[in-house]
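Hey all, sorry for the wall of text incoming. These are the three entities for the joint prediction.
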Amino acid sequence: MKHEHFLDVNELSVEFQTRNGIVKALEKVSIHVDKGEVLGIVGESGSGKSVTAYTIIGLLDRAGLVTNGKTAFDGMLLSGAKEALLSDLRGREISMIFQNPRAALNPIRSVGKQIEDVLLRHVQASRYNVRKKAIDMLDQVKIVDSKRRYWSYPFELSGGMCQRVMIAIALACNPRLLIADEPTTGLDVTTQKATMDLIQELTRNRNMSVILITHDLGMASAYCDRLVVMQKGKIVESAPVVKIFSEPQHSYTKKLIAASPGPKSQLADLIDTTDEMSEADIEQLDKPMQQFSQKKSATPNILEVSNLVKEFTVRDSSRFRLPWSGKISSHQTFRAVDDISFSLKRGESLGLVGESGCGKSTTSSILTRLLDPTSGDVIFDGENITSYSSVQFAQIPQRAKIQMVFQDPTDSLNPRYTAKDTISEPLKQLLFIKKREALNERVIKLAKMVGLPENLLTRFPHQLSGGQKARVGIARAIAVEPLLLILDEPTSALDVSVQAVVLQLLNKLKRDLGMSYIFVSHDLNVVRLLCERVMVMNRGKIVETGMADDVLRNPQKDYTRNLVSSIPHFEPGKKVA
Amino acid sequence: MLQAVPSIFGVIVISFVLTRALPGDPAVYFAGAMADKESIEQVRQALGLDRSWVEQFFIYVGNLAQGDWGQSLKTGQPVTEELLKRLPASLELTFIGLGLAVLAAVPLGILAATNPGSWVDHICRLLVTAGVSLPTFFTGLFLIYIFYYLLGWSPSPLGRLNILYLSPSHVTGFYIIDSLIAGDLEIFLGALAQLILPTITLGLFALAPIARMTRGAMLGALSSDYVRTARANGLSKSMILLTYAFRNASLPVLTTLGMVFSFLLGANVLVEKVFSWPGIGSFAIEALIASDYAAVQGFVLSMALLFITVNLTIDVILAITDPRVGLEE
Amino acid sequence: MSENLVTVVSFSLFLFIVFLGLFGEFLAPYDPLATAASNTLRPPSWTHPFGTDNLGRDVLSRVIVATRLDLSIALSAVALSFVIGSALGSVAGFWGGWWDRIIGRFSDTIMAFPLFVLAMGIVAALGNTVENIVYATAIINLPFYIRVSRAETSVRREAGYVAAARLCGISEIRILATQVFPNTLPPMMVQISLNMGWAILNAAGLSFIGLGVRAPDAEWGIMVAEGATYIVSGEWWLALFPGAALMIAVFCFNLLGDGLRDLVDPQRRT
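and here's what came out:
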């Protein structure tokens, strides 16, 4: 046998038995990890990166079958080992942390007890000192007030805190290998960085080996020593981080790297020209709209927002109140949008960036007039549209002028409508086109504009891929020739390569149709590709506004600085520790 | 405890509406077929039928609160007295039936969920679908046919105790408990023998929904992220199964028990008829046939109150087990 | 046993039951009401495959003819509770707020009763007729429909395609009717199918204790009740065949419901 690695996975193949026959999930996957090394496994959804991890520690579900390959951990053969042995190793020698940390913790057991369970199972503590050890672990993962948090249940903790608890459980018995499966997906950028930094610190101190599974190349490059790129169950490339980024060998790796937006990449760089996108030939829309927008250019700003406020009443659920105990503010108001003002020029794109709960979605709902503001004005195309209620607004012609592209392409298409039905809906409702031929002609034209093959028009959403669904959503939004298009995280549910294609499409449409965009996103790197100007929001307020590149390169406010520095990305020439 | 108040209020409102929905003159109805003009007039006064709806409602609630649930026409006794006399017989049946069902269904559901696709799982699935399709009165009758007529193993399906025995002196009203208190083993065995078939009938009926829920909830818990975490940390099988999976799965099962109890109270009526069981179900059927409305209303109300109490108990247990449910004092 | 096979079998059984319900009177070998004093309590034979009852009536004919009455009671009850329940449920789920509180309270109040007991009370108050059995069964089923419809509507209320429809200026009520409601139908169909069986059982239970259907009309529940007296003396066929018919019908609807549920929601397979 050749040189022995700490973990050695040799030609692993896994098949899944599904209703539609056998699906090959892994094909001859070989990876190895050395002591103290951090290996990143990157790939898009369905590439088999999680299956690899599950197979290593023997957590493959019943439908999965290992058909080939061997796994050895520190010279010990894991494949074919008895469940009792594996169960002994798990948690003590090899640990795993998962995405969606709140669901990954037992909801009705206090977090302290859950740490104790592992300690007791692997005889790392006795009944007498187990609580002390558990609290000590909570301290190590930097949970403040650990003695009190010991008694907390997962639902009482934030997502980031739950992930720390999971790290505490995973590291409680000082294992030698940690497998982290998308550990920060679903967390905010700043929490993401804090969590990853914590994992890095703790595993380095213990000289542990780590396998980091992620779809985010930026994160992989920031925290890993070596990367393995997977595609459709196969490993396409494996090399040290610096090498993979400087001299990618495989075309898929190149595509993946190109598609991942960094702080300096340009939209045009994201994909090579051979992609399907370029074949979507974009035609000019009907002339009237162009003239319309030029005629009215007396008002340079398409949108002016002043002193916009939205308050929600929240019930004070922390205390139980008897109905007769007086009206001492049992209803509290919460300002989701707190007095914001900004303007948008014709044809301009503005990025609206912030973490979850910052008020960006509420703002976009008000701008699309689906939600009524508490106070403040929105002047759209020279008219104050907040003087109409959202119900009245639905009845006036301006309704067609503000449209929106939604976050989740699956959720935003009616499952009972074909692509064509979906695209025709606004045409019928807002432009009153009722004739079959006219409608058909428009839909086909729109499909062409967004690069949707005509033969897909009769399909239902479940028969379309994520990227195709996104195109249908975009076609619907531009069908009525809006002046302002609000993009609500239009790519966050898509794989990076699809994201790149969709971003380019949006850019092209903007250029050709002369629309203005408001791009709502949590990802500054994506926003700057499409927007000249960005606006950073936090707790309902605008923290910083400026040209996209300036804000990214030279943020003025602490909050923005923190946000920018939290985005993991590959920097050429970076020291890999 | 406050949660029960609107339920009780709602139950009383519906019960009030139902009494006033009686065809014709409620006074005539409550006075009974043999009543003369004078007694009808008396009833009208007592119910406040000559006053406004709101006043009538308050009189109604007042009467209920004072324990005046009207008189049974058939026996001439106060309805509350009649109900209390028969309640233990019905409760003995329902609770033992429920107990049997839980004892059989929960392990079955767990076994099926831990071995999906195995023969236990197939049996469980078959039992579950067949079980909810069985009319209780039908199961009861055929248990009688097999075990009484054909095999002769069980005593004649007439009541709580063979007429040869005297019922044990009243302490709790539950014969099997009272006979033990009295130290009379013979009566205890006699009462037990009478109980076997009807409780099995009820148990078979309640088994299906409980097993179904247990299986489903266990399957859900076993495929959950937190069980995966527990497995990834090498926790022992019994720990994963009991502390992690079953404790979580027991919450929806407990909630289902409330629903099952509601169905059982209905099935109880049918089973009592089949086995000539002298409980409140039989009493209600007789009252229904005789158009003895006060008795029927008392029956419906008392069953609803019993059901609310059971639900309240379940809520309290849930609040203790599940930290996510705030216990409102 | 393949699951498709089960669904196919239950669906054919369903068609057969519907066929009996529609054409039962033509298929029955004898007049279900014709008594024959010389031919009472005969066990099953070639001339009377299900035997005869205490009045000499042919049990087979009575079981066949009863299909229509049992099915129509259950069907009308389910239809009533589906229409009212899904209307109330979608309003509560879509608009929330006070609508939701009032409708929720209403359905909770019904659920506070043991349902069969409530049905007994309703029939007692409204009068002992077949129509009132239908109303009582419909009322006690109502909360289930409200609950499913409310839940299915409220998860879709915030869906992207609903917001997209709002952007098209479609009025709220039309959004509910054209975008949301049709998507709640599949889970509602499952509910209907599972509920049909229960409605049949309920109606049969009520007539078993002597409510609703009156002798000499043929109905499965009342036939079992009539046969019950003879069980202890060994004349099992009087109660067995109507009881078995009842059981098979309910079983068929339950299987169908399970099959539909798997089709509609592959994740929530049981």
